[in-house]
């Protein structure tokens, strides 16, 4: 039995953040999987990280700047070729504002 | 003897001298694919023969004109299906990108094309590179050419299987937590994950951006050095790309490890390591010692914490990177939905497989308000400690030596039911990505079931040359073992 317990509210909230729709069975499985994973991840609490700076990259990275100049050509047709739906040279999506 | 049993550099030499034409090489690769795909299934997409042969003619002309002189000109290659190839289906082995034809080519692949590569296909992988067995592919599993009842490893399982099955001369893979080194070990081939930033990630479909790195997979160390020399570049289109001082990796192919200090972490040889794998790795270490390397055991520390830290960081980055797959701009969109939000949700729920969804949800959770500090920042602090542990080790040693994986390839169908157990299989490779280090897996024998074992060498940042030198010196003591399937030969190209 997992120590972490994922509530229905939490898994629904995660579904909203992740933009995923889960069936009731999938939801139960996801609650179990996430609880098990969090139990495992809680192992990190054994480590004293007081005063340790979070490291997002393995070596220091600096901002990389360039002039704001267009170097690629107009690739609209190629880009749109992958669109599931299109209209008048644009991506077509369901109505966004009621 | 098939042309595909040669190394990439050997075949390149024969092409250069005119002994073999680019067309003959390409035909040998396609014939091997036709003969072995049914058993192995390394590829999501095989490039149609007309297109391969047209490219072969073009490359031959450039060689004949003297415009292409590199060691890989005209040699057939497989590209992992998470690297964009203009005009050629690129799926990430996912339903959601099932019909995606990229409008541009990844920088690393472009570099290979400039070196005269002939692409024969796009290699199968775990969906979005999430997995260790190549069983999570939407397009079906890849089988290990050494024993088709076993997995090839993953996530670059298709790339490694294609090289081992001699369907192509070499391949590109990508490595986020061991995805080049572990399948290389399972398939008996050589694969290197370079220092983070060495190869441009432009056009590599992102999984964990701070960890992802493209690298070569081939039959031997010489090939890997030549391939890395071709693909490594500083690229303004990847803001994490590093301008290195050295790109002449083949200069390190020297049979000399005298005085090289090699650390053997005791924590890599404890519980969970298969006895036969352990013996093979220690035998390989003894070979290097005999050649003059100085071996010493030490405690690396923190090894078991790398996996939980990795899954927090990689999942967090994945949840963000995979937000772009929303049914608007490319590929799959759900058939039925009501309104925009349901379109997003249904598209993603139908388009992604189980393991991908699991990681996206975990990533969304650890980044969510209230949990960010406890999970995400904690993992980044752990990463800093892991990096410090490696820094300490590399103050004393030139290289670290250990296994690439705790076992040889598991049987098909044994791994996916227990995700955490599967994640534990990455224990020796994962911390290398967290610390941005280079690591190579070199074949060092087989177990009693006849399955290959890989030795991993880890170097400090930008020390690929030390890796190549030690790996090359070790390799001089043993011949490349062709897998049984490849030994059978292909009637069409005899």
UniProtKB/TrEMBL annotation, chain A:
Function of the protein:
Allows the formation of correctly charged Asn-tRNA(Asn) or Gln-tRNA(Gln) through the transamidation of misacylated Asp-tRNA(Asn) or Glu-tRNA(Gln) in organisms which lack either or both of asparaginyl-tRNA or glutaminyl-tRNA synthetases. The reaction takes place in the presence of glutamine and ATP through an activated phospho-Asp-tRNA(Asn) or phospho-Glu-tRNA(Gln).
What EC number(s) has UniProt assigned to this enzyme?
Answer: 6.3.5.-
Q: Which family does it belong to?
A: Belongs to the GatC family.
Any one Gene Ontology molecular-function term assigned to this protein's record:
ATP binding
Identify this protein by name: Aspartyl/glutamyl-tRNA(Asn/Gln) amidotransferase subunit C
Keyword list, A-Z: ATP-binding, Ligase, Nucleotide-binding, Protein biosynthesis
Source organism of this protein record: Fusibacillus kribbianus
What Gene3D superfamilies has UniProt attached to this entry? Glu-tRNAGln amidotransferase C subunit, N-terminal domain
UniProt-listed SUPFAM superfamilies: Glu-tRNAGln amidotransferase C subunit
Claim: Metal-binding is one of the keywords in the record: no
Recorded name of the encoding gene? gatC
Q: Which GO terms describe its biological process?
A: glutaminyl-tRNAGln biosynthesis via transamidation; regulation of translational fidelity; translation
**Matching Pfam families:** GatC
Question: Which proteins does it associate with, and in what oligomeric form?
Answer: Heterotrimer of A, B and C subunits.
What's its catalytic activity? L-aspartyl-tRNA(Asn) + L-glutamine + ATP + H2O = L-asparaginyl-tRNA(Asn) + L-glutamate + ADP + phosphate + 2 H(+); L-glutamyl-tRNA(Gln) + L-glutamine + ATP + H2O = L-glutaminyl-tRNA(Gln) + L-glutamate + ADP + phosphate + H(+)
From TrEMBL, chain B:
Residues in the active site? Answer: 80 (charge relay system), 155 (charge relay system), 179 (acyl-ester intermediate)
Name any Gene Ontology BP term.
translation
Give UniProt keywords alphabetically.
ATP-binding, Ligase, Nucleotide-binding, Protein biosynthesis
The enzyme's first-digit EC class, named in words, is ligase
Q: Give any Gene Ontology cellular component.
A: glutamyl-tRNA(Gln) amidotransferase complex
Q: What is its EC number?
A: 6.3.5.7
Q: Can the keyword Nucleotide-binding be found in this entry's annotation?
A: yes
Catalytic reaction equation(s)? L-glutamyl-tRNA(Gln) + L-glutamine + ATP + H2O = L-glutaminyl-tRNA(Gln) + L-glutamate + ADP + phosphate + H(+)
Cite the Pfam families for this sequence. Amidase (PF01425)
Record domain Amidase: where: 25-467
Q: Which GO terms describe its molecular function?
A: ATP binding; glutaminyl-tRNA synthase (glutamine-hydrolyzing) activity
* NCBIfam families on file: gatA (TIGR00132)
> What family does the database annotate?
Belongs to the amidase family. GatA subfamily.
Binding partners and assembly: Heterotrimer of A, B and C subunits.
Biological function? Allows the formation of correctly charged Gln-tRNA(Gln) through the transamidation of misacylated Glu-tRNA(Gln) in organisms which lack glutaminyl-tRNA synthetase. The reaction takes place in the presence of glutamine and ATP through an activated gamma-phospho-Glu-tRNA(Gln).
Q: Report what the protein is called.
A: Glutamyl-tRNA(Gln) amidotransferase subunit A
Originating organism: Fusibacillus kribbianus
């Amino acid at each position: 039995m997992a120590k972490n317990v994922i509530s229905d509210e939490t898994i629904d909230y995660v579904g909203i953040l992740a933009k995923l729709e889960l069936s009731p069975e999938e939801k139960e499985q996801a609650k179990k999987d996430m609880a098990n994973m969090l139990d495992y991840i809680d192992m990190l609490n054994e480590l004293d990280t007081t005063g340790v700076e979070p490291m997002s990259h393995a070596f220091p990275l600096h901002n990389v700047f360039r002039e704001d100049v267009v170097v690629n050509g107009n690739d609209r047709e190629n880009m749109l070729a992958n669109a599931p739906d299109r209209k008048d040279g644009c991506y077509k999506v369901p109505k966004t504002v009621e | 003897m098939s042309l595909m049993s040669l190394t990439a550099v050997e075949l390149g030499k024969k092409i250069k001298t005119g002994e073999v034409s680019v067309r003959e090489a390409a035909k040998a690769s396609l014939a091997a694919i036709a003969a072995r795909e049914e058993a192995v299934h390394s590829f999501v997409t095989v490039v149609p023969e007309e297109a391969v042969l047209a490219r072969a003619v073009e490359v031959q002309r450039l060689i004949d004109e003297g415009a292409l002189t590199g060691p890989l000109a005209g040699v057939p290659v497989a590209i992992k299906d998470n690297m964009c190839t203009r005009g050629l289906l690129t799926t990430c082995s996912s339903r959601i990108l099932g019909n995606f034809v990229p409008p541009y080519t990844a920088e690393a692949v472009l570099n290979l094309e400039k070196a005269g590569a002939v692409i024969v296909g796009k290699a199968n992988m775990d969906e979005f590179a999430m997995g260790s067995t190549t069983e999570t592919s939407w397009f079906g599993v890849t089988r290990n050419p050494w024993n088709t009842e076993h997995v090839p490893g993953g996530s670059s399982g298709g790339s490694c299987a294609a090289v081992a099955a001699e369907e192509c001369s070499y391949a590109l893979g990508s490595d986020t937590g061991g995805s080049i080194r572990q399948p290389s070990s399972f398939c008996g081939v050589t694969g290197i994950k370079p220092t983070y930033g060495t190869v441009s990630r432009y056009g590599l479909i992102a999984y964990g951006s701070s960890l992802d790195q493209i690298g070569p997979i081939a039959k031997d160390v010489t090939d890997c050095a030549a391939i890395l020399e071709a693909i490594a570049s500083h690229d303004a289109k990847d803001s994490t790309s590093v301008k290195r001082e050295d790109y002449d990796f083949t200069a390190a192919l020297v049979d000399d490890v005298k005085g090289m200090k090699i650390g053997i972490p005791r924590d890599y040889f404890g519980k969970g390591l298969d006895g036969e794998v352990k013996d093979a790795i220690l035998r390989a270490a003894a070979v290097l010692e005999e050649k003059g390397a100085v071996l010493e055991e030490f405690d690396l520390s923190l090894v078991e914490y790398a996996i939980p830290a990795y899954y927090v960081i990689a999942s967090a980055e994945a949840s963000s990177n995979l937000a772009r797959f929303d049914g608007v701009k490319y590929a799959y969109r759900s058939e039925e939905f009501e309104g925009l939000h349901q379109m997003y949700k249904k598209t993603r729920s139908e388009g992604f497989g189980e393991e991908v969804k699991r990681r996206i949800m975990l990533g969304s959770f650890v980044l969510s308000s209230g949990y960010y500090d406890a999970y995400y920042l904690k993992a980044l602090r752990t990463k800093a400690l892991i990096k410090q542990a490696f820094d300490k080790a590399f103050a004393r040693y030139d290289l670290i030596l250990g296994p690439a994986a705790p076992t040889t390839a598991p049987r098909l169908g044994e791994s996916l039911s227990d995700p955490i157990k599967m994640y534990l299989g990455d224990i020796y490779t994962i911390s290398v990505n967290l610390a941005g280090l280079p690591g190579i897996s070199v074949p060092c024998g087989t177990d009693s079931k006849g399955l290959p074992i890989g030795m991993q060498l880890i170097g400090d940042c930008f020390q690929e040359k030390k890796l190549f030198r030690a790996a090359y010196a070790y390799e001089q003591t043993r011949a490349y073992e062709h897998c049984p399937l490849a030994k059978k030969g292909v009637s069409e190209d005899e």
